[in-house]
Amino acid sequence: MKEVKQHEPDGSVSINKEDKKAYDKVRYKANRKKMNDYSKAYHQANKENKKVYNKTWQKANKEKCAGYKKAWQKANRNKFNNYNAIRRARKNKTNVLITKEEKQKINQLYKIAQDATKLFGYGWDVDHIIPLSKGGLHKLTNLQVVPSTWNRTKHNLNCDKYW
Fold first, then answer.
1. Which of 4, 11, 44, 133 is most open to solvent, judged by the fewest CB atoms within 10 Å of its CB?
2. pTM score of the predicted model
3. Averaged pLDDT for residues 112-136
């Protein structure tokens, strides 16, 4: 790879940006494991500094953060809805410890609801058979996929199963 150097008016020499990017890409591919290990070790050693930096960056870039958050929510609607249900369950002190497999199955329910919405053309939700506000738990045996209209009319008034 030929490096194209540019002479600056102050007498210094700079490398062409495109060539530098290509060089960095080749260098990264050749040393990927070494660089990843170094990066992990650095982040492990500087956790507190990283937290402080991230908080200050987020305060300075609130609009960007909000945009990133909104884009993530749109791309991961099922995970977002599941996190909200977990948050509500914690707030009502009705959250239970669940295994990783149960968590994955619950996420699959939210994915099924999202896919059903695309397939049928109207909204589908994951409903808590016994509402969280009435002491129901956020666990697999208390969840069902139902049409949004039915879920909205049910609200937290009853414990009916849809099917």
1. 11
2. 0.55
3. 90
